[in-house]
Protein 1
Amino acid sequence: MGAAKRPLVFAYYVTGHGFGHATRVVEVARHLILAGHDVHVVTGAPDYVFTTEIQSPHLFLRKVCLLFCNVHGELLRGSDETVYSLLPVVQVLLDCGAVQADALTVDRLASLEKYSETAVVPRETILATEVEWLKSIKADFVVSDVVPVACRAAADAGIRSVCVTNFSWDFIYAEYVMAAGHHHRTIVWQIAEDYSHCEFLIRLPGYCPMPAFRDAIDVPLVVRRLHKPREEIRKELGIGEDVKTVILNFGGQPSGWTLQEKFLPSGWLCLVCGASESLDLPPNFVKLAKDAYTPDLIAASDCMLGKIGYGTVSEALAYKIPFVFVRRDYFNEEPFLRNMLEFYQAGVEMIRRDLLTGHWGPYLEHALSLKPSYEGGINGGEAAAKILQDTAYGKNYAADKLSGARRLRDAIVLGYQLQRAPGRDLSIPDWYANAENELGLRTGSPTTLMSEDTFFTPSRPEDFEILHGDCMGLSDTMTFLKSLSELDGILVSGITEKLQKRERKAAAGLFNWEEDIFVARAPGRLDVMGGIADYSGSLVLQMPTREACHVAVQKLHPSKQRLWKHALARQNAKGQGPTPVLQIVSYGSELSNRGPTFDMDLSDFMDGDQLMSYENARSFFARDPSQRWAAYIAGTILVLMKELGVHFENSISVLVSSAVPEGKGVSSSAAVEVATMSAIAASHGLNIEPRQLALLCQKVENHVVGAPCGVMDQMTSACGEANKLLAMVCQPAEVLGLVDIPSHIRFWGIDSGIRHSVGGADYGSVRIGAFMGRKIIKSVAAELLSQSTANGLTSDDLEEDGIELLETEASLDYLCNLSPHRYEALYVNQLPQTILGEAFLGKYADHNDPVTVIDTKRNYGLRAATRHPIYENFRVKAFKALLTSATSDDQLTALGELLYQCHYSYSACGLGSDGTDRVVQLVQEMQHSKHSRAGEGTLYGAKITGGGSGGTVCIVGRNCLRSNEQIIQIQKRYEGATGYLPIVFEGSSPECAPTQLELNRQSTRFRVWGRTRWSGSPTRPSRVTLRTQCRPEKEKGVAIVWFRNDLRILDNEVLHTAWASSQALLPVYCVDPRLFGATHHFGFPKTGAMRSQFLIECLSDLKQNLMKRGLNLLIQQGKPEQILPSLAKAYGVHTVYAQKETCSEEVNVEKLVSKNLRKVVLPSAEGVSTKHKSSNVTNLDLIWGCTMYHIDDLPFNCTSLPDVYTQFRKSVESNSTIRSCIKVPASLGPMPDVKDWGCIPDASMLGIQPEKACFERNVVHRGRKRSTETYKVTRNGMLGPDYSTKFSPWLAFGSLSPRFIYEEVKRYEKLRVSNDSTYWVLFELIWRDYFIFLSIKAGNSLFYVGGPRGVQTNWSQDQALFDAWRNGQTGYPLVDANMKELLATGFMSNRGRQIVCSFLVRDMGVDWRIGAEWFESCLLDYDPCSNYGNWTYGAGVGNDPREDRYFSILKQGQSYDPDGEFVAYWLPQVKPLPKEKRHNPGMMMYMKPIVALKFGNTKASGARRGGVEEKKGKSYRGNRVQ
Ligand SMILES: Cc1cc2nc3c(=O)[nH]c(=O)nc-3n(C[C@H](O)[C@H](O)[C@H](O)COP(=O)(O)OP(=O)(O)OC[C@H]3O[C@@H](n4cnc5c(N)ncnc54)[C@H](O)[C@@H]3O)c2cc1C
C-alpha cells in the first residue's frame, strides 16, 4: 500500500461483538496509518489492544461503551469482564453486541431488548451525537465493523461509508427475532436500512449471509502479524520443544470452573489467556499476562483450545495451529466459521461436557494429527486498507456483485427467519445450523464465490457423488459417507493391513465401487414416557436420539459381487457358479465382543420350495452366538420376503455403522432394523411408508430375533422428528402426531451401565403378567355381565350404561383402554399378586399374547404388571397435556412427578435396577438440595426407560446451563459411587425419517461409465429417488438451448432435455430489439431502464452458471427468428429447445423461429442424432416450464379453466401434484467450438439510459416499509401476516423456478413448521399459475379494452389525469406514494398495485390499458399474464365478475398504513404532518386532489373537476372494498 496522496481522516466504528473484531480492526487501521492517514477508532475495547500494535500520533481512540452483558444487563464474569471493566465512564452505547447468558450461550431475547434499549430508543440522540462528532473530527470516510448506526450517521453527515466484516446484524437479529416474536422485526429492518447507506462491503472469509449489502469485495483473512518467532516465545516462557503446548483462548470462561491438573495428558502444558488474577492454576497450566500478545503465543503453541469466534478461527488458520473448539449455543456466525475450519482441516470439535469435565486428552491428541492447510493469504488488513483508501480518494471499485443466486439465497435465509411463527422455534433451525453442508464446503474460502450449486444441492465429499437424496445437513451422515468413500482407499493406498481393524478391512472388500450404494440413517430413541406399557396399548412419548445408525447397501448381480475368501471358497465348492450371497459387516464389534462379519447364501432362507419359517430363522441365527446380531439385519430380508413377497435375486452387501450404543435402552436394535430395511427397500425400488416399515421391523425383532418388543422403538426411529416427542398409541401403532418439546424444557438420558439386573423380573415375564391380567379382567367382566343378565335387566339408564361398560371390558382389547378408576372399583381385588404359570393356564387356557410363552413352572407377578399399563397410560396423557400447557414451575414439577411415579411403578413390577435407582436418587438429591431450592430448580424428575432392569434413565429439567452442570455432577457422582462413567444422551436427532442416498464413486480411478443425472419425481421430498443415467449413446449432434424467460440452470427442463438428447449444447440468448421498443398503444418504453438492468444481471448470472458447468452463453443482438436458423446451420443443430410461452407476442416469435428453421437444410447428417437424421432439418421443441403445476398435470384442459380462481386452486390442489425439480448434471459440456460468445449487453446497447436498478436495495427498502406496516397493523390486531417474498422479478425472468420455491417451502415445513405463512407463498404462486393458464384460455382478449368478458366501457384517455397518476401527483398520498415507489424502484406491493389500479379506473375513469402499459414499462417483474390478468380483474373486465372491486383510498390507508409511515417515506411533504393527517392532509398541506373519490368525501380541485364530470355517465358496477 503506497503512501497517501493526501492524508485522510477515517472514522472507524467497531462492534461490541467480541474481541476478535477489535483485533482485526487494528490491522486495517495500522495499514491506513502507515499510509499516512489519521484513524479515529470508536471502540469499547481497552487501549492496549490498539496501542501495542500502533504507536502513532495518527491513532485516536474514542471510547464508547460496547458492552457484553448478561441477561440482567450486568457485565459478564471472566476474561471479558477483565477486558471491559477497564472502560472509562460510559459515554454512549452504539451497538451492544450479543448479550450472553453465559460464556457459551447467546441470549437472543435479551440481545434484542438490549439493542432496542440502547440503539433504538435513543436513536435520534445517537445520530445527532455521531454526526456532530464526525463533523468535529472532519472525517473524510467512515468505516464500520459493523455498527449499523455508523453508516446512517455517516450519511447524515454527508460522509461516505464502507463496512468491513464477516457478519452483519440484520442476519443475526433476524434469527433472534424468531425467538423473540415478530414485534421486534422493525429492528432488523432498521439495521438493514442503516447498512444500506454504506457503499459496499469488504467481506472477510468465513462470512455469514449478509442480505443488506448489495455489493461485496472479498479480501483474505485479517490477522495480526507475528512479532516474534516461535522458538523465541517458547524460550521466553521456558517451554522446551518437546513439551506439547495448548493455548486456552476462551474469553469469558464459565463461572465456577476450575482448571485441574488431570485435564491435560502428561507431557502437555496449557497457556491460559485472560485468566483473572485470583484464579489459581495447577502446575501444568501457565497464566499469561493480561496484555500478552496472543498471536505470538498461538503460533508458539501446538494447538489452541477455545470457543469459536472470528479472531480465534482466523488466527488458528493463519498460523496453521489446530483448533479444538467448543460450540456456542445460538451463536449465528459459528456454522460458517466452523465450515472454514473444517475445510482447511484445522478444527476438532470438543463437546461441552468434555470441556467442562476435563476430558481433553483425546481431542488434543487428535488435534496434533491434523495438518491445517490454509493457504489463502493473511494480508486482509492491508488489502482492506488499500480498498478503503482508494475508495476514499474516489476510485470506483468494480465490486464483485453478489450473484443473483447468492443474493436470493441470502434473502431466502432472512425471509424464512422472519416468516416464522413467533415463539415457535427457540433453537437454531437445523438447516441453518448445518449450513456448512447446505452451503458447500467452500463457504469460507475467499477465492470461491458462493455458487448456485453449493447452495442448492447438498454438499458432498470430494471423491464421491451423492446421486440422489439428501443428507439433511447431518454431519454424522456426511462422516459416514466420507468413511465409506475412503474404504477402498484402504486397499488402493496400500496402507499396511496390520493397521486396519478387521472390520474395516472386511468392509473395504464389501462393495463394488462401480455400482450404486444406498445409504439410510435411523436414530435411536429415548423413552420419555410410556415404555413397557406399549404392548398394552398405551400412549407413549418418544424422543429420537441424536445418535443414529447408518446402513449402506449394495444390490449386485452375483457375478459382480466381491466375495470374501471363505464365501468364495464355499461357492466354488458348490460348483454352481455365482449365486446370490448376503454379506454383512457391522462396525463396533470390538466394543460388544462379537464377530464383525456375517455372510449367508440367500438360498439359505429357503426350506425346499418354501420360505424358511420364522421359528427356523430364529434358530438359524442363534447357531453362532457371535453372529446372532445378524438376525436384526438379515431378518429384514426374510420379513420383506415373507410379508411383502419380495424376491431377492441379486446379491446384497450391507455395511452397518451405528452410533446408538447397544444395551443402553435407547433402542439400538430398532435403529439398525429401520436403517437396514430402509436401505434395502431403496436399493430394490420398494416404496414402504414409514409406518409400515416400522411394523415390518417389529416383526424382525419379534419373529426373527425373538425379542418380544412393542413397536414404539421402530416407529420413533422411522417417524420421529428433532426437538419433538413422537406421540403414539400402541393399538397397535397409531401415530398421533408430534409434540413440540417446549424450549424451556429439556430431556436427558443417563445410562446406568447396567445391561440387566440379575435379580429383577425380566421384561418378558412382566409382559406375560400384564396379558394374564387382561385375561382375568375380561373374564371377571364377563362374569359380572352374566350375573347382571341373570338377575334380569332393568330399564334404568344408568345401569344400562354400566352393562355397556362391562361388555366392553369383557372384550377388552388393550389393558390401557381400562381407566384407573374402573380398575380400582371392580378388578383390583380379583387379581392375585402372583400366579404360577400352570395355575393360570389351567384356569384360563391362554394369555393371548402371540410373542410370549408362559413357563408353567414360573411364578408371574400379576397385579403390579397389570396395574402399571393402566396407570401409565393415564400418566402419559397427563404428561402430554402438561407439555402443551402454559409455562410455569408447577408444570415442570408435575412433569417430573409423573416421571417419578412411572419409575416406581417399574420397580413394583420388578423391572428396576440398582443403577437406575441410583441415578433417580441422585436427581432427587440434586432437585432437593439447598442450592437448588434457593434458586430456580433445574432438574425435576427421572425414570427408568424402555424395557427396564437397567439401561438409561430419562431426566426432565429446565433447559439451562445450570441443568447441564447438574447432569455432569450426577454423571460424576455416579462414577464415584460405581466406577462407571455413564453416557449422557442429550439432544434429539435433526432428521429421523431414514434418508436415502445413492452413492456412486466419481473418482476417475473407479468410474467406468459415463455421466449421471438427477431425475425422478419424489413421492416424499425427503425420500427422493434418483437413477443414474448415461447420456444415451445414440443421441448425437448439437442442440441449441434458446433461453427466453427461463434464465436458470436449476429445474430447467429445456436445458436438461437438450443435454440428454445431444452430444454438445449451444446455449443462446437473443437480445430481441422488439423487447426494447415501445408498448403497443401508448408508446412507453417496452422494457424500462430498471428491468433492462435486471435482465443484464440475470444474463450475467446465467452465463457464469453455465460456465461453471462447462458451457457458456452465446449472446446475440437481433431477432431469434433470424439468429437461431443461422446458428442451426452453422453448427448443424438438430433441435432448438426452448420454453413454451403463452402470450401472442412470444408465440408469434415461436412461429417465426419454427418457420425459418424449417428452411434450414443441414449440411450433412453425419454425427447428427439418428432421431433427426432422416429429416435433415432443425426442429423447434417447445417445452413447458414456467408454472408450478405442469400444464399436463392439470385436471382440465386450459380451454375449460374455471373462471373463478378459488375453483381453479381447489381443483389443482386436490387433483394435481407438483412435479419435482429437474436437476441438471454438474457438467453440461462439451460445448461446440464458438469463436465469439458475445458479451452481456450494457444499458446503452439496449437503448436505455444507464440507471442502477438496485433491486435488492429497493426491495429491501420496500420490505422494510411493508414490515413496518405489517408490524403496526398486526399490533393493532387488524391484519394477518403479510410477508412479501419479492420473488416476482426472478420468477418473471425465469431465474427462479416456482417448483424450486415449492420444494423449499415443503422442505422448510418438514424441518420446522407448517403454517399459514408457509402455505401462503404457495397460494400466491397458484395465482401466478392461474394467470398463465388464463392467458391460454383468454388469448388476446386479455389485451383488449373489453377484456375477456368483452365489457363495453367509455374510458377516458385524459393525458393530464394519467400524468398526475403516473408521476404520483394525484393529491392522494397513498396513490402518489405507490406511484413514486414504482418510478424509483420498479416495484410496488400487490396491495399498492390494486389501489392505484382501482384509483385509475374507478376514480379517474381512465382506460385501464394505459395503466397496464405503464406497469409493463416500469415493473421489474413485468409478466404479460400476471400484469394483464390483474389489470383486467382490477378494471372489472376480467373473466371473473366477482373480482370487480373498488378500493377506497382512505380506508386502505387506515387499514394498511395506519400511521402513514409508508406515505411519509415516499412523500417528504407529508412527513412533518401528524400521523392521522398523512392520508388526508388537506389541500393546504399537500396538493389538491385531482379528482373526487367515487365513494369519498374529497372535493376535486376546480381545475380538474372537468375530468370527473366527463365520466358522470359511466355507471360503476363493481363491488366496493372497504
Ligand atoms: C394491477 C396489477 C398488476 C400486476 N402485475 C404483475 C406483473 O406484471 N408481474 C407479476 O409477477 N405480478 C404482477 N402482479 C401481481 C403481484 O402484485 C406481484 O406478483 C407481487 O406483488 C410481487 O411481489 P412478491 O414477489 O413479493 O409477491 P408475494 O406476495 O410474495 O407472492 C409470491 C409470488 O406469488 C405470485 N403472485 C402473488 N400475487 C399475485 C397476483 N396477484 N397475480 C399473479 N401472481 C401473483 C408472484 O409470482 C409472487 O412473486 C400484479 C398485480 C396487480 C394488482
Protein 2
Amino acid sequence: MIIGSTGSIGEQALEVIAYHSDKFQVVGLAAGSNWQRLAEQALHFGVKKVAIGDKALYPNIKTAVSGLELWAGEEGLCYLAGLEEAQTVIVSVTGAVGILPTLAAIRAGKKVALANKETLVAGGEVVTKLARQYNAAIIPVDSEHSAIFQCLRNEGRFLRKLWLTASGGPFRDFTPEELGKVTPEMALHHPNWSMGKKITVDSATLMNKGLEVIEAHYLFSVGYDDIQVLVHRQSIVHSMVEFIDGSFLAHLGVPDMRIPIQYALSYPDRWPSPALSLDWASCQTLQFEPPDTKRFPALELAYEAGRIGGTMPAVLNAANEEAVYSFLDGQIRFVQIAELVAEVMGRHGVVLEPDLESVLEADAWARECFRTLLRK
Ligand SMILES: NC(=O)c1ccc[n+]([C@@H]2O[C@H](COP(=O)([O-])OP(=O)(O)OC[C@H]3O[C@@H](n4cnc5c(N)ncnc54)[C@H](OP(=O)(O)O)[C@@H]3O)[C@@H](O)[C@H]2O)c1
C-alpha cells in the first residue's frame, strides 16, 4: 500500500517494488490530485483499490478507469491505510495530511514505512504513543533516519549522540544579501537530490534538517542536546551515530532514495538494489562543517519548537508548510519563511502532552495565524 504514490518517493517506491516484483503485490494506491498518474499506476500494477485526496477529482478518475474500488478525501486515505490485505503501508504524502493515515495504519497493525516527516514532527507524541500501544513497527524511509536506524541495530543502549548530515542546500555559500534575492526557481534546484517541491525548499532554508531533528527525537527517543547537525556537501555520509566509547558508525552510499526505501521494505534483510555503487575514486573529499544558523535560522527554530514540545512542533510545521507554498506562489520572499514561522510560534499558547485533537487544532490555528499575518 502506498499513500502518496504519485510523488518523488511514491514513484521510487514503485520502482523498487517493480524491481522485486516476485516479493510484492501492490494492493492499494493513494494520491492527492494527480488522478491521471494515479490511474496509470493502478492499471500498470493491477491495483484495484485507489483513493484520491482531492474529493473534487473523484469523478475524473471514476470516468477514466473502470473496475476500480474508488475512495476520496481523508477518509479514503485512512481506509486504504488500514486495508485488511495490506501488510506494509508506505506513507509518502507531503505534509501533516499524513498524520491520520499513519495512525490508521498503526491501529490496523501494519508495518509502516514512514517517509512523511511532517507526521512525526506535528504528531510525534501521539504517533509514538499509539505505536507503543499497538506494538507497531515504524521503519524510517528518510535517508538520514534510515542511516541511523541501520547504524543503531542492537546497540541503542550504548548511544551517546546522533549526527545528522545536511547537504546545506543550494544557498549554503550565499551571503545574507544574496539570500534576500532568492527566487522559487533558484530554490527548486537542489545540488544533490531530486525531490518534491516542498522538501526541496525546506532543504534550501535548512528547515528540512530542523524537521529531521524533531523526527529523530521521536524515532530514537534521543534528547535534543544529543542530536547534532553537520553540513556535509557531498551527501555521501547519510548520518552517523556516536557511542559512549567514542566510536562512530556512519552510513555511506550514493544519494539515491531507492536505497532507504528498499531497506524499509527488506528490513531486517538486505536485497540487491538497482542503485549505483559508490565510486570511491570520484569522491576523495568528504567535508563536514557546522551549520550557520544566523543565515539559516529555521534550523534553530525547529530545535526551539522541539525543546518546548507539546503542540509547538505542530505549529512550526503548519506555519512552515504555509510559508513554503506562499514563497512558491510569489507572495513572500525566501528569507520571510523563517521570519513568519517565528512570528506564528511566538503567538502560540502551547498545549503540553497533546492528544490528537489538540495537535489538529494547533495545526489549523497556525495556518490561520499565518494567513492573517500574510494579509497584513
Ligand atoms: N523526495 C525525497 O527524496 C524525500 C526524502 C526524504 C523524505 N521525504 C519526505 O517524503 C514525503 C514526500 O516527499 P516527496 O518529495 O515524495 O513529495 P512530492 O513529490 O511532492 O509528493 C507528495 C505526494 O503526496 C501526495 N499528496 C499531497 N497532498 C495530498 C493529500 N492532501 N492527499 C493525498 N495525497 C497527497 C501527492 O499527490 P499528488 O501529486 O497527486 O497531488 C504526492 O503523491 C515528504 O514528507 C518528504 O519530506 C522525501
Protein 3
Amino acid sequence: MSQPGIPASGGASTGLQAQNGAASASGSPYTNGPVQNALMSSQVSVSQGYNSQLPGSYPHLIPAKTLNPVSGQSNSGGSQTVSPLSNYQRPGQAPYGPPVASHPGTPSLRSGPSPQMPLPTSQNPAATPMPSGSFLPGASVPSPSNWQYNYLSQTNHCPRASSQPTMTGNTNLMSPQYVSSGDSSLQNNFIKSGSALPLANPPLPTTFQPGAPLGPPPTGGPPPVRALAPQKLTPRTVPQPSFNSTSNQEGFWSYKFNGSMFTLFLATSQPTNKNPTMSRSVGYSYPSLPPGYQNTTPPSTTGTGIPLSSLNYPSGPQAFTQTPLGANHLTASMSGLSLHPEGLRVINLLQERNMLPSTPLQPPVPNLHEDIQKLNCNPELFRCTLTSIPQTQALLNKAKLPLGLLLHPFKDLVQLPVVTSSTIVRCRSCRTYINPFVSFLDQRRWKCNLCYRVNDVPEEFMYNPLTRVYGEPHRRPEVQNATIEFMAPSEYMLRPPQPPVYLFVFDVSHNAIETGYLNSVCQSLLDNLDLLPGNTRTKIGFITFDSTIHFYSLQEGLSQPQMLIVSDIEDVFIPMPENLLVNLNESKELVQDLLKTLPQMFTKTLETQSALGPALQAAFKLMSPTGGRMSVFQTQLPTLGVGALKPREEPNQRSSAKEIHLTPSTDFYKKLALDCSGQQVAVDLFLLSGQYSDLASLGCISRYSAGSVYYYPSYHHQHNPVQVQKLQKELQRYLTRKIGFEAVMRIRCTKGLSIHTFHGNFFVRSTDLLSLPNVNPDAGYAVQMSVEESLTDTQLVSFQSALLYTSSKGERRIRVHTLCLPVVSTLNEVFLGADVQAISGLLANMAVDRSVTASLSDARDALVNAVIDSLSAYRSSALSNQQSGLMVPFSLRLFPLFVLALLKQKSFQTGTNARLDERIFAMCQVKNQPLVYLMLTTHPSLYRVDNLSDEGAISINDRTIPQPPILQLSVEKLSRDGAFLMDAGSVLMLWVGRNCGQNFLSQVLGVENYALIPQTMTDLPELDTPESARTIAFISWLREQRPFYPILYVIRDESPMKANFLQNMVEDRTESALSYYEFLLHIQQQVNK
Ligand SMILES: [Zn+2]
C-alpha cells in the first residue's frame, strides 16, 4: 500500500511552484517530474484566444475615467488588463520592456507604469450594464487562468502570468478566488514580549501610534528652512491653526483645520464587535491626540493669523537632505541578521525535532534599516512569502519557494490615519499613492518607488497639517504611514455613493422550518437592527422562498407587511419593486413586525421543494438598481427551477483522494454571481444543512461576488444547541461589522515584479483590478508574483494595495497599504528571509486550486514536493558542507511540520470520513481567511490549562489573561493528570485527563470527580475561584481575537469528540497519515537522493 501522505514517487507534476518554474524538467534531481508541459501549451493558446477577445468584450469595464489625466497614463485600460496585448500598451510601458512579445503568456500587470486607481466603472448600472453573457471564457475572468498557472509552471517558463484566462469551463473551482492573509504572529512584533499578546485587533505598529506621524523623516533631518519672499505668501491660503475636534458621523474624532486646504484626522476605526475598550489596555487612549498635537506650542501668529512657522519655508527647490532610500537603508546583507544569530543557524530536523516556539510564531522582520522598517506596513495587513526578494527570476527559481503576498486589507484597526485633502498625491505615471518609501529629490520633487518617475510635489502637499509647518512634504502623514486612508474626492466616483442596502433571502421550506433557524436569525436581526452599518439612506428588504417566491411590501404607511407570492419560477418578476426594498428608518416598525411574525408564518408548511435559483434571480433583480449585500439562508439542496442540483456525494468515496466532486455541477451560480458583481451586489451564503447540499456549486454565488460562505452542518435548534449559539454570535458580528460597498482593489508593485494570480473571493475585472461589490474586515486575499525583469539595480522594492470603497455612511474612501522589502542576490539570503507561515498559506491556496483543476492527490503531492524541492535546493546550493540528516535553514524549520499539518487539514486530508461539503467549506476558508486564522485551523495551538498561573500573564481591561506555553501537537505532550486546551480556530477542545487533579475538576469544571463531567459539556461554569477566572479569561480572550465564534467542547476520555481532538495531533501517526518523524524521514530520503 502506498504510504499515506506521501506522493507516489515519480508522480507527475507535482510542485506547486508554478512561478518558480525552472528546474523540474526531466533529469532534475527533484521529484517533480517534467510537468505539465502539455497544459502549459494549452494555456497559451487559451490565452491567445482570450487576448483577442478582451478588447471587444470588455471595454465597458475598463475604467473610463482618468483621474488627473496625464499623457501616458490616461488610457490605462491596457496595463490593467491581463493580456499584455500590444494594442493595450500605453506609451509609458515601453521602457519596461514589451511584456507581450517576449512572453506571450505573461501578465502585463506590470507594477510600474500601471494604471491609476480604477474607477469602478460598472458602478453605474445604467451606464455600464454588465451583460450577463459576457462572462465567457476569456473575456470575463482573466484571473482564473492565473490560478492554473500556479501549479503548472514547473518549467522554466517565466511566470506566465497567467494572463490567460483559461476560464475553462466556468465550472471549475479553480477560479476560485479565495484567499488568506494576515498572519498569526504579527502580534508580538509590535508588542513587547511579556506584555500584551495578540489582540483581536492588535494595535498597529508603532508607526500607527498617534505620535508616529510626527517622528523624524526616514532619513536625514528636516530640511534647512529659509525665509521666503513675503509676496509669495499672500496667495496661499494657509490653514488656520485652530483645531476643532468634533465627533463625526462615524463616531470617531476628527481634528480639523478651519482653513480647508485639507483636513487631517486620526480616526479610531473601532471594530464594531468586541469590546471597544480593549484598545485602552494597550496604551491607546481613545480619542487621543497625537503628541504632536498636544505638544506643539501654539504658534505665534502674525496679525493675520498666519502661524509664524509657516512663514519660514524654503523657496524653491533646494538641496534636500533626505538620504536616498536604498543602499544606505539596507544593513549590510548579513549584518542585520547578526542581531538574531538564531536566524543563521542550520538545523538538522532529524535531531532537533522540537522547533515549535512556545509563544506564537512571529513573522520575520525584513532586513531593512530600522528607519525604514519602523515605517513598514504591519505584517498583519500585508505580508510577503519572502521578506528578501530575489533579484532575478532565475534566483527565485533556484530557491523553489513561492513568491506571493498575503493581505488582510480591510482589517479592523485600532488606529488609522485618515486624510482629507483636496489633492491625493499619486505618481503621474503609475498612479501609486505617495508613501513612506518614495524618495524626495528635493522639496519639490519626489521619485516614485514603483516606477521611478520623478513627480512634482503639489503646493498643498508642502504644508504639514500635523506640525503646521510649511516645507515639510516628507513629514506629511501620507509619507509617515504605511497604512492610511484617504477621503476620496468626487473624481473617484462615477455615480453618487450607493446607500447601504441589505436584502435577506430566507429558505422557508419544510426542511428549513424544521431546523428552527428562522427564529434565531430573525431575533438576531431584531436585536441588531439599529446596529446595521448605515445612515438615513439605509435600505432593507426580505424575500422568502420554498417552491414559490414570497416578497414583502414594507411601504411606509401600511399597517402591516404585505406578502406577495410569485409562483412562476420560470420567469421571475418583481411585483411592486418600489416597496420591497425600503428605507429602514422610515419603515422600521414594519420591518420589526415582519421579523417578529416571519418565524411563525410557515410553521405548518408542507412544502419540501426549494427554488433557490429563481429566488436568487429575483433578489438580484431587486438589488440591481442600487447594489448592496444579499444574505441568503439555505438549508438543503435546491430542487426546483434554474440552479436545481442533484446529490453527488458518495459516502463510500469520502475518504478517497480521487473521484470526489470538488467542482461545481452547474455554472448557474457562477454566472449569477458575475451578474451580481457587475451590479455591485455581493452574496453571502449561510448554509445550515445536515445533508449534502453541493456547496461546491452553491459556493460560487459568494466566491465570484466577493461574498462569504458560512456553514453550520446539522444545525438544529433543539438537537444542536451549540450551533445555535455559534450562529447567533457570528450573526451578531456579521450584521454589525464594518462594510464597504462598490469596492475595487488594486495591488501594485515595483517595476520588474509582476503579479499573476489572485486568491480570494472576488471577480478579476481586468488584469489586476479586483471587483469587490462588498468588502468586509474578515476577508483575506493572496496573490502570486514573479520577477519579470531583473532587479539588479534595485535595492528595495515596494508593494502597494489600494482599496477604493464606499463606506456605510456614503463616503468614498481609499485605504492604502504599502510594504517595502529588500532585494537580495544570493540564495542564502532568500532562504534567510523566508516567511514560513506566509509560504504555507500561499501553498494552501495553490493546493485548493490544484485539487479542483487536477485532483486532491495531485494537490497533496504538490504540497509535499514543495518541501522537498525547496530543501533540496537549499541543500545543493546554499549549504556548504553536505551533512547527513535533514538540514534546513532556521527560517524554514517549521516548513515540513506546516505542510504535514496541511495534509491533515480538512481540505486536503484523506482516509477520513469527512463530508464533502465540509471539505469544500474548509477549502473556501483556506481561500477567504486571513493567514492568521488559516494557520490556526491548520496547526492548532495546544496549551496545558490545569495549572494556569499569572506568570507571564497579560492584562487587558483589568482582566488578567494567562499565557500558557504552546505545546507540540503530540500525545506525548499530554498527561492523564492534566487538562489540555486545543485552539483549532473555529473550535476549542478541552481534553480532561482521567487523573486530572481534583482542584481543576472542582474549581474550574465545578464537578466533584471525573465521572461527573457531563458527556456533553460546551460551557464552563463561572465559579468564584481564581482557577475558574483564569481559565475563563483565557478562553474568552482566545475567542475575542477572531471574527467567528469557536465552540468549546469539554472532552473526556470516552467522549466521541476525542477522535477529533486526536485527529489534530499533527505530529502523531494516524491510520491514514504519517507521523511527523516519518514524514521527515521521507523528506530526507527525497532530498538526499
Ligand atoms: Zn510611479
